[in-house]
Design brief:
This protein is an alpha/beta fold. The protein has 12 helices and 10 strands.
Length: 299
């Protein structure tokens, strides 16, 4: 059994599920989801129920068994020593290392394993690409307002422009780690898209559309719809709805956000142009070949 530890927002949860699903498929075993981290991580909640995933939850007993915690006949000190003697990717609890690039040793993990990490690279699940795309479709039909926006997106050369501010600005600790994408990045990305796409129509997805309006000159037809505005602490189904709308766009300018990464990756339109920030974190250097699909433009 593969158990994957879920934590963070929807974008993180999608990566964690996809990696676990891939490893479970490789070994031909069940995948179960550990939701216990959300008991302490209160700023986000479990959000995958809106999708057509294989949804099975790990019990505390199953987590303890797979992680070899409290097993009879084996003292905790002996257990810890036994695990330390193994290579990190063969341990009962496989903690991701390094976090900023793809680790091919992932596929050498045992079939009975607890996955602890973020796994933010499509290389962890590219072998089951079609399965992930199928399972990351939403279950429920959208409301009338969202359907109207979807029809507008599908009727033109739509460009999703995602600007994340919110906690990236208001929380000093998060800002120090992530930073924000600058207006210069967005202007350069807009110029690149406009140079390749005839008659682009931009759809702004943001938790601060007023800031976008005042600081980023788009110069092309643009929608600032309330239906594409991010609001903190909304239900997971609403984030899934926003992701679905983003994925309908034909082109993407993403933020340094796993959420908009998924919006672009799930789109898969012919001739798709995707612009991504080369500086994903403020303080950590990521491996571009691990983080981004080859066809994406890094600016």
């Amino acid at each position: 059994m593969v158990i994957t530890r879920l934590v963070g927002g929807l974008g993180n949860q999608l990566f964690q599920y996809a990696a676990g699903r891939s490893l479970a498929a490789l070994h031909g075993v069940d995948l179960k989801l550990d939701l216990s981290p959300f008991e302490e991580y209160r700023t986000r909640s479990y959000s995958l129920s809106a999708f057509r995933i294989q949804e099975a939850f790990a019990s505390p007993e199953e987590v303890a068994r797979v992680r070899r915690i409290g097993q009879p006949g084996l003292s905790s000190a002996v257990h810890r020593l036994h695990q330390r003697l193994k290579r990190y990717y063969r341990r009962a609890t496989y903690r991701q290392r390094p976090v900023a690039r793809f680790d091919p040793n992932f596929f050498r993990a045992p079939s009975d394993v607890y996955l602890w990490g973020y796994w933010q690279s499509e290389k962890y699940f590219e072998a089951i690409d079609a399965t992930i795309r199928s399972e990351f479709t939403i279950k429920s039909p959208m409301d009338a307002v969202s359907r109207t926006i979807a029809d507008r997106i599908l009727s033109c050369e739509s460009v999703c422009l995602h600007v994340r501010r919110g906690d990236y600005v208001s929380d000093a600790r998060i800002n120090q780690t992530h930073g924000t994408c600058s207006p210069a990045y967005y202007r350069e990305s807009i110029d690149l898209v406009a140079g390749r796409v005839e008659n682009p129509h931009f759809f702004v997805f943001s938790d601060d559309p007023a800031w976008v309006f005042n600081h980023i000159t788009i110069g092309h037809p643009t929608d600032y719809s309330p239906a594409t505005r991010f609001v903190h602490n909304i239900p997971g189904e609403s984030y899934a709805n926003l992701l679905w709308l983003m994925s309908l766009c034909k082109h993407h300018i993403i933020a340094n956000s796993s959420f908009s990464w998924w919006g672009a990756w799930l789109a898969k339109w012919p001739g798709q142009v995707v612009c991504a920030p080369a500086q994903w974190f403020a303080t950590i250097t990521v491996d571009p070949a691990s983080r981004f699909p080859r066809a994406w433009e890094l600016l």
